[in-house]
Amino acid sequence: MTAPDTRVLLADDHALVRESFRALLEAEPGLRPVGEAGTGAEAVRLARVHRPDVVLMDVRMPDMDGIEATRRICADPETASAHVLILTTFDLDEYVYAALRAGAGGFLVKDSTAAELITAIRVVAAGEALLAPRITRRLIATFARQGPPAGPTTAALRGLTEREREVLTLIARGLSNTEIAESLYIALGTVKTHVGRLLSKLDARDRAQLVITAYEAGLVTPGG
């Protein structure tokens, strides 16, 4: 049986950008654009109408910015299954952090190649976290300046086993399940089990949220 197409909602305030993305997706097997939004408010409304698998979300839009639109889509039980991929020209720290906190599953800048964008959509649709390498470096640098906050997030890690902490640390460093398995000399299935337990114990919706938790708790530091 053929797998269903990944349904993608496009949200950007520039019509030409949306048209370019739509043409790119229509030419790609397994991906299908299902709607276009020119504002954050419209993106929220169309997410409820089309129930997309992925929302390709710009940050700066009229009425409501992409961060707030992401927050509303991820918090609404009717649309919470959608994975939001933030795509913007503004790779500023505050946008990256705010987007991930709002529930975004990935973040790319608009100078990414078409191939990188297609890969990002597929990765995010599968529930994996995705950050452009240079954005990951900037995010780490931000946490280095601010220092990890003490509080509930740190306390939540006390319920993790030592192996779960190791897996969480490697997730936060950007390793895939396969790379984690090779690093820890354990089976891929065992890694998947640990990831599932981490999502449950830390009440995280996806790997992006696990990354945020690891940094906020000080489990991962630059160069650590």
UniProtKB/TrEMBL annotation:
Residue ranges occupied by any Response regulatory domain in the UniProt entry: 7-125
Gene3D superfamilies documented for this protein: 3.40.50.2300
Alphabetic keyword roster: DNA-binding, Phosphoprotein, Transcription, Transcription regulation
GO molecular function list: DNA binding
4-aspartylphosphate: residues bearing it: D58
A biological-process GO annotation: phosphorelay signal transduction system
Residue span(s) of domain HTH luxR-type: 153-218
Name of the protein: DNA-binding response regulator, NarL/FixJ family, contains REC and HTH domains
Organism (species): Amycolatopsis saalfeldensis
